[in-house]
Design a protein that fits this description.
single chain; alpha+beta; 2 helices; 9 strands; 20% helix
Length: 153
C-alpha cells in the first residue's frame, strides 16, 4: 500500500520535469534573422555600411521586388552600446566562406554562422544560435571574435 501512495507523486514529479524542459526558450536558430528582418535592419540603420562578397548596395535593396536569396548574409559591426549594435558595419553576402572579422563587436546573420577567436576560422568558435550575449534587432555580441564561418545553405 505504501508503494501505491508514492507512485502517483513520482509520476507527477516526472511529468512536471518534462513540462518544464519542453517550455525552455532556448530553441535552435533563435538568433538567426529572416531575410525580411535583415532587410528591415539595412533599410533603417544609420550605421556606416560596407558591402563585400555578393552583397548589393542599399539603393538596390527592395524586399518586395526580389526573389528569396539562398545566400547567407552577415552583418559585422565594430561598436556595441548597451543592447545596440552599430558603428561601422560590413555586410557579407555569399556562400560558404571564412570571413575575416578582426575588431568586430557584434553580428547578425540569415543563417547559423559561427564566430571564432582567431583568424582563419580557428581558435574557439561558437554558433550564432547559441549566442551568449543577445542584443537588440537579432544581433549577438561577439567580443574577441576575429573570423566568421559561413556555412553552405
Amino acid at each position: 500500500m505504501v508503494y501505491l501512495k508514492f507512485a502517483p507523486l513520482y509520476v507527477l514529479a516526472t511529468m512536471s520535469a518534462l513540462v518544464v524542459s519542453e517550455s525552455s526558450p532556448a530553441l535552435p536558430g533563435n538568433n538567426v534573422l529572416t531575410d525580411a528582418e535583415f532587410d528591415n535592419w539595412l533599410a533603417t540603420t544609420d550605421a556606416n555600411l560596407t558591402f563585400i562578397g555578393d552583397a548589393e548596395p542599399r539603393a538596390l535593396i527592395n524586399p518586395f521586388g526580389r526573389r528569396a536569396t539562398t545566400k547567407t548574409r552577415v552583418t559585422m559591426c565594430d561598436k556595441q552600446v548597451g543592447s545596440v549594435c552599430g558603428g561601422t558595419c560590413t555586410i557579407y553576402k555569399g556562400g560558404p566562406a571564412c570571413v575575416g572579422a578582426q575588431g568586430i563587436a557584434c553580428i547578425a546573420a540569415t543563417a547559423n554562422v559561427g564566430f571564432c577567436t582567431l583568424s582563419g576560422c580557428n581558435g574557439n568558435c561558437s554558433n550564432l544560435n547559441q549566442c551568449a550575449v543577445p542584443l537588440g534587432d537579432g544581433f549577438c555580441g561577439t567580443p574577441g571574435a576575429a573570423s566568421i564561418v559561413v556555412p553552405a545553405n
